[in-house]
Amino acid sequence: MLRKSEQKETVRKPAPFDGNGEIIVRSLLNGSTEMSGKGRVFAHTTVLPGAAIGYHVHQGDSETYYILSGTGRYNDNGVLCTVTAGDVTYTASGQGHGIETMGDEAVEMIALILYE
Q1: For residue 109, what are the CA distances in angstroms to 1, 60, 94, 100?
Q2: Partners of 111 in beta bridges
Q3: Per residue in 72-111, pLDDT tens?
Q4: Dist. CA 38–CA 116, nearest whole Å
Q5: Are 85 and 107 in contact (CB under 8 A)?
Q6: Cα separation, 95 vs 78, whole angstroms
Q7: Domain spans of the chain?
Q8: Distances (CA, A) of 29 to 15, 54, 111
Q9: Rounded to an integer, what distance in angstroms lies between the CA atom of residue 69 and that of residue 5?
Q10: What average pLDDT does the chain have?
Q11: How far from 90 is each of 40, 75, 87, CA to CA, in Å?
């Protein structure tokens, strides 16, 4: 399979989990079918300036963020830390996280959600 850049599904939507502002999600693979039933999200996500994905707990799946650019405040189970380009976060099932942009530059990241 090859998906050209212009073929990716792109959605601009309110930030989830009672977050602020908006995010842009570009699906790299479209859900469980294209992920061989092993996951549900593989996406290039943009958290726009002033936006935040609200804190949420994962149950039955894990989520990894690979930060491409920008600076964010990452909530790792209640511990706040700063993430920048090249950082990787991991949230296992039963754990929680959230992320918000810091400053005027969007946070660009790859998000991967895999089933346990």
Answers
A1: 23, 22, 22, 12
A2: 43, 65
A3: 999 999 999 999 999 999 999 999 999 999 999 999 999 9
A4: 8
A5: no
A6: 10
A7: 8-115
A8: 20, 23, 11
A9: 19
A10: 97
A11: 16, 11, 10
Phi, psi of 24, deg, nearest 5: -120, 130
Among the listed residues 56, 47, 113, the one whose alpha carbon sits nearest the alpha carbon of residue 83:
47
51-74 confidence digits (pLDDT tens)? 999 999 999 999 999 999 999 999
Q: β-strands 72-76, 79-83: how paired?
A: antiparallel
CB atoms within 10 A of CB 116: 11
Q: What is the pLDDT of residue 94?
A: 98
Take residue 50 and report the two structure tokens written for it. Answer: 């002033």
What is the fold, at CATH topology level, of the domain defined by 8-115? Answer: Jelly Rolls (2.60.120)
Asked if 97 contacts 74 with a C-beta cutoff of 8 angstroms, the reply is yes
Q: 20-45, pLDDT tens digit by residue?
A: 999 999 999 999 899 999 999 999 99
Return the structure tokens found at 31. Answer: 């859900």
